[in-house]
Write a structure and sequence with these properties.
Structural class: alpha/beta
Largest sheet: 5 strands, mixed
Number of strands: 16
CATH architecture of the largest domain: 3-Layer(aba) Sandwich
CATH superfamily of the largest domain: Mannitol-specific EII, Chain A
Strand order of the largest sheet: 12-15-16-14-13
CATH topology of the largest domain: Mannitol-specific EII, Chain A
Number of helices: 29
Helix content: 40-55%
Radius of gyration: 29 Å
CATH class of the largest domain: Alpha Beta
Length: about 700
């Protein structure tokens, strides 16, 4: 029985309410599978002593019988606080401390970290040095400074990877990873960057290789923050240099480190040595699915009498869910919250049922009740986000994953709730807060002894979390009179830019694009914010994809086929697509009809991800004489915008903004009247920021 298992036993004994597997996994920073293994160990001990075993209920809640606390009679001789490191564990941890330290470290400092005497560290020292030598490293000593490790930086990182990646025979983290962290950076952000680059470069790691690269990047970030960089490397053409370059480009931006060409080269060597799967089958019709999503949102908005098409998170989450439905890969876990949500929102489920034909026409099987229920949950989350922008609540954000995770969570909350953020704290500080300091706390872990109301969410803030926060707000709103705080609206970089942009475009249209870039940089520098929120990684805006070079005016075409072909030829010339992509677009429209016509006079031809798209891009042409696409509702078409998509995500922000801009008739009228490509690009940027 390991230290964590003992800790879980004491937590279960001391808890007044039920505890979930998920909350234990978050608290101990391990997977839910690991917690299940720990619970199996606990059940084994319960069986041995003829006590009732733990049971798991819906939602991963752990059910204990009345005799559970008697387990303490059988673990008291292995109490949590009596845990002692073995000699092998001490040597590994001491080695990790030495190799990870950029400075000299004293024997006393090592002893304090291990909770042992200085003499114990001295007795272990020869074995520790011998262990470090296995990594091509050596320990040197200085009479007045202590010990430090010398050797190549690459060897140090490999050594730390070996230590930090250690597991016990049962699959649990070993003593080194329990006692010392050699990694830095927000793991969620780094994992997202790695996932995106897998898709962009079409190279998918095996699970083992993915976790090794993820581990290395955490160690690299930690070392770079300490001022330690890879030694000079010989440049080799291993084929993974561009992928390494792209990964580090975004890590530098979002993890706030510096890097070098040698860092890129070494990462490329690790990537070259990694193992890869064959390219995964991707959803071919992602853009078509996103168009179906748009149509469904419009139908539900009309049905319920409330506009939901301005919520980007709703559009993204629902399109991803519909993609899983259409690919028949949907898995619905047991979740009691879903039933509760639907009972409180029967009108939403009814609206989804009435408009299911929008999806049913594109799926080979009948939609199930679960399919429709989960679609309704996405709609409910959008309604919560819209509703809860109306009330200003004082909120504290608490997180166990470091300041990086807290800031990302904070940015997402600000997007959809009118919160005045009082403070951002680490979870252990919550018990020291004064009652009345805030209306509620939003936290990623349960808060023991906290005097304030709190709601637990995941760091990624999914749709269920939005609903959970919304429910908590409803309870607070109805339970007591909250003070009026209209004068305390928080000033944010986003809010300031959104208010400045329309004025700049109105007063100085000729210089607006360049001036806005300078203003955005100045405002974000003042607020100490990165250029884009984490949720917008790799998501260019429409005006990024449609600069003047990607717009051609007054093109002469005889029919829709020629218009589609000409709109794609520019992307072909610039290397965005292969020749076969144009033929595939034409065939797509012939087989599936003119669904690519999104709005009166505006079409977005495209094809699937495996039909010859190379990189994300758009090219817009304005026809001198509009042509018919066979769309009775939206013909004739004046604007044809060819889209090249490389995955389900990269183009999504631009596509979402385009759809919303097309709802403004004045936008299309200005595009109709403009005289130059530069003027058209300026109109697109102006209206996009006007959203």
């Amino acid at each position: 029985m390991n230290k964590r298992t003992l800790s879980i036993i004491y937590e279960l004994c001391g808890a007044d309410s039920e505890i979930s597997i998920g909350s234990l996994a978050e608290k101990h920073q391990v997977s839910q599978r690991t917690i299940r293994n720990d619970l199996n160990t606990v059940n084994g001990l319960l069986r041995e002593n003829h006590l009732h075993e733990l049971q798991l209920k819906t939602g991963g809640m752990i059910c204990r019988k009345e005799d559970f606390e008697r387990i303490l009679l059988f673990v008291s001789d292995r109490d949590y606080y009596a845990y002692r490191l073995s000699k092998e564990e001490r040597i590994k941890i001491a080695a990790a401390l030495l190799v990870n330290s950029p400075e000299y470290i004293t024997l006393s400092a090592i002893a304090d970290s291990l909770f042992v005497s200085r003499m114990t560290v001295i007795n272990d020292l020869d074995r520790t040095k011998e262990y470090i030598r296995t990594g091509n490293l050596r320990v040197i000593s200085h009479a007045n400074k202590g010990l430090r490790v010398e050797g190549l930086e690459s060897d140090k990182r490999v050594f730390l990877m070996k230590l930090a990646g250690g597991r016990t025979a049962g699959g649990n983290r070993d003593a080194v990873t329990e006692h010392i962290s050699v990694q830095a950076g927000d793991r969620t952000v780094v994992q997202k960057i790695l996932n995106e680059q897998e898709k962009i470069h079409g190279s998918y790691f095996t699970d083992d290789s993915f976790h090794k690269i993820l581990l290395y990047l955490g160690i690299m970030i930690n070392r770079n923050l300490q001022g330690e960089f890879i030694e000079t490397r010989q440049r080799t053409g291993n084929g993974r240099y561009l992928m390494a370059q792209d990964i580090l480009k975004y890590i530098v931006q979002y993890c706030h480190i510096n890097t070098t060409e040698d860092e890129v080269q070494y990462l490329s060597e690790l990537l070259a040595g990694a193992r890869y799967l064959k390219r995964r089958t991707v959803q071919k019709n992602v853009v078509k699915i996103q168009m179906i999503t748009r149509a469904l949102i419009e139908k539900i908005s009309d049905e319920m009498g409330i506009r939901l098409d301005d919520d980007y998170d709703f559009f993204e989450n629902l399109s991803n869910h519909l993609a899983s439905i259409l690919s028949d890969q949907t898995f619905y876990p047991e979740n009691p919250l879903i039933d509760e949500i639907l009972e409180m929102n029967p009108n939403v489920l009814d609206a989804v049922h009435k408009n299911q034909h929008v999806i049913q026409s594109c799926i080979s099987r009948e939609l199930t009740g679960k399919d429709l229920e989960y679609i309704a949950v996405h709609v409910c989350a959008a309604l919560e986000r819209k509703k809860n922008k109306e009330v200003a609540f004082h909120v504290i954000v608490a997180c166990h994953g470091g300041i990086g995770t807290s800031q990302l969570l904070l940015e997402k909350l600000k997007l959809h709730f009118n919160f005045y953020i009082v403070d951002v704290i680490s979870a252990h500080e919550a018990r020291n807060l004064e009652a009345g300091r805030a209306d509620l706390i939003i936290t990623t872990v349960p808060l023991e002894g906290c005097p304030l109301d709190y709601v637990v969410v995941s760091p990624l803030l999914n749709d269920e979390d939005y609903i959970r926060v919304g429910h908590k707000i409803d309870v607070l709103r109805s339970s007591r009179n909250l003070p009026v705080r209209a004068e305390e609206n928080e000033v944010t970089a986003r809010g300031m830019i959104e208010r400045i942009a329309p004025l700049v475009y109105e007063e100085a249209p000729d210089i607006a694009p360049g001036l806005m870039k300078k203003i955005r940089k100045a405002v974000r520098d003042y607020f100490n914010q990165s250029a884009e929120a984490e949720a917008e990684l790799f998501a260019p805006y429409l005006h990024h994809l449609l600069p003047p070079s990607q717009i051609t005016l007054d093109v002469e075409c005889s029919d829709w086929k020629e218009a589609v072909r000409i709109s794609g030829e520019k992307l072909l010339e610039q290397g965005y697509i292969e020749p076969r992509y144009i033929d595939a677009m034409l065939q797509n429209i012939e087989e599936n009809g003119p669904y690519v016509v999104l709005s009166p006079g505006f079409a977005v031809p495209h094809e699937g991800l495996e039909a010859g798209s190379i990189k994300v891009g758009m090219h817009l042409i304005r026809l001198k004489t509009p042509v018919s696409f066979g769309s009775e509702e939206f013909d004739p078409v004046e604007f044809v915008c060819c889209l090249s998509a490389v995955d389900h995500k990269t183009h999504l922000k631009a596509f979402f903004n385009l759809v919303n801009m097309l709802r403004t008739e004045q936008f299309k009228q200005k595009l109709h009247e403009c005289r130059t490509s530069a003027e058209a690009a300026r109109i697109i940027e102006e209206y996009e920021y006007g959203l």
